[in-house]
Write a structure and sequence with these properties.
heterodimer, A: 239 residues, alpha/beta, 9 helices, B: 217 residues, mainly alpha, elongated
Chain lengths: 239, 217
């Protein structure tokens, strides 16, 4: 069952265009969103969160259009973006105390578990965190309110191999609980380990949106890794 | 209290914003353009906007489970709260000047504006101007704070200059009433100021909601 639907999304900037982006996410699946820098991943993700105002197209979660049900939908989704710092001079405790009040399904025990797993000290301020720890703090905010859909923009960038491994294991556990995950990444080996589906975007257009097996079968050659397929497709497009 | 107003108070606002409410005490300064107190209160609010911008407050707020327009409303609620706290303090001090100090020589021998209901009406008009020019201007981009604040400064000081000296124009002496002189006229001006404040704030908030909906973060 499709839980998220993006259809006909268009956005024009002076130097870039998002053209008719369409894909869907199924409940309980992990979808990898791949493409080069500037291919349109972040614009698509930001449109899905109403941070960017698309020129055209529709976005719906749980069968509800985003525009008309923004607050209700955001109660049920989680978002994390790389290393952006919220309120760098406030403590993590202060930020969590305010954030938890926005969510009707905030889960203190899940929050504590993530804090322990990520070794986050709530007395610290975001400005005192390393880049990797900032990623973890953003993930903590996305994972503590029992979100049904997680939209993660490069969640594993900047994490050490051990933390990445733990995070991918967490994704697999969340998937078993029916959580839908969309994550953009350049680390394609992460997707090989946990993704069910691949959405591939190039120059603002979706080139492929199918299961990982289909993507590997149709786009790849025997024994090619996801990274090798991605690199070859990009080189072929450039040639 | 709604979540966004709580967020404004606990995460976005600066201590300076709260301290600058104390500039309402300029109402008691003799021989000084007392309407400048309003400007300093709005300068304190400006500091919170600056702090919020550096802390990625707008993006954080939009990511919370609220509609985008509610983020704008939360900012307006916070701004209005600070303004009304400052106004309440100024009103209290104005009553002091109208009663206990109404015959004090330092206030009577004053070329500038006296603290009376007209002064309070002008204070509300200035707050309304801040809401339209600065807060409304901010939400056209959600990051540019310099340009709308400079425009507000020019507009505010022209208004302050006019209000402080208007009573020297023949026929307008009643603007500088002491004690309870010309009370009905004075209260009418206060009421007019209040209506303008409400109208300007509601207009600015609606316009800002529409502008903010269209911009990309």
């Amino acid at each position: 069952m499709d839980i998220v639907e993006v259809s006909g999304l268009c956005k024009t900037y002076p130097a870039f265009q998002l053209k008719e982006v369409s894909f869907s996410l199924e409940r309980g699946q992990i979808t990898g969103f791949i493409g080069r820098n500037g291919a349109g991943k972040s614009t698509t993700i930001k449109s899905m969160l109403n941070l960017v105002h698309p020129d055209r197209g529709n976005i719906s979660f749980f069968g509800m259009p985003l525009k008309e049900n923004e607050a209700e939908i955001k109660q049920r989704i989680g978002y994390s973006t790389g290393t952006v710092s919220w309120y760098p001079r406030k403590t993590i405790r202060e930020i969590l105390a305010v954030t938890r009040e926005f969510y009707s399904r905030w889960d203190d025990s899940a929050c504590r578990e993530c804090m322990a797993m990520f070794s986050l000290d709530e007395r610290k301020k975001p400005m005192e965190l390393s880049e990797g720890m900032k990623v973890k703090f953003n993930l903590l905010l996305a994972l503590s309110h029992r979100a049904e859909v997680l939209i993660l923009d490069e969640p594993t960038s900047g994490l050490d191999p051990f933390s990445r491994d733990e995070l991918l294991e967490l994704f697999r556990q969340l998937k078993k609980r029916g959580v839908t995950i969309l994550f953009s990444t350049h680390i394609t080996s992460d997707l090989e380990r946990c993704a069910d589906k691949i959405v591939y975007i190039r120059q603002g257009m979706i080139r492929s949106a199918c299961s990982k097996a289909e993507f590997m079968q149709h786009s790849g050659k025997p024994d090619e890794s996801l990274e090798e397929i991605f690199l070859r497709l990009e080189r072929e497009a450039r040639a | 209290m709604n979540m966004l107003l709580k967020k404004e108070i606990r995460l976005s606002s600066m201590l300076l914003t709260w301290l600058f409410i104390g500039f309402a005490f300029m109402t008691l300064l003799p021989g000084y353009p007392i309407l400048c107190g309003v400007f300093f209160i709005t300068l304190g609010i400006y500091q919170s906007f600056q702090n919020a911008r550096e802390a990625n407050d707008i993006v954080y707020s939009v990511l919370m489970p609220v509609a985008k327009r509610d983020v704008v409303r939360g900012k307006f609620q916070f701004v209005s709260l600070i303004e009304l706290l400052g106004f309440a303090l100024m009103a209290l001090l104005t009553v002091l000047r109208m009663t206990l100090f109404q015959n004090a020589a330092v206030y009577r021998q004053n070329a500038l504006m006296n603290a009376n209901p007209f002064f309070l009406g002008m204070a509300l008009l200035l707050f309304g101007m801040f809401n339209v020019i600065f807060v409304g201007g901010f939400f056209k981009t959600a990051y540019k704070i310099g340009k709308p604040f400079v425009i507000y400064i020019v507009a505010a000081f022209l208004t302050i200059g006019a209000a402080e000296t208007l009573h020297h124009v023949p026929g307008l002496e009643a603007l500088n009433a002491f004690g309870f002189d010309h009370l009905v006229f004075q209260l009418s001006l206060l009421l007019l100021g209040a209506l303008l404040f409400i109208g300007m704030t509601v207009y600015a908030c609606r316009q800002a909601c529409a502008d903010f909906e269209k911009i990309d973060l």
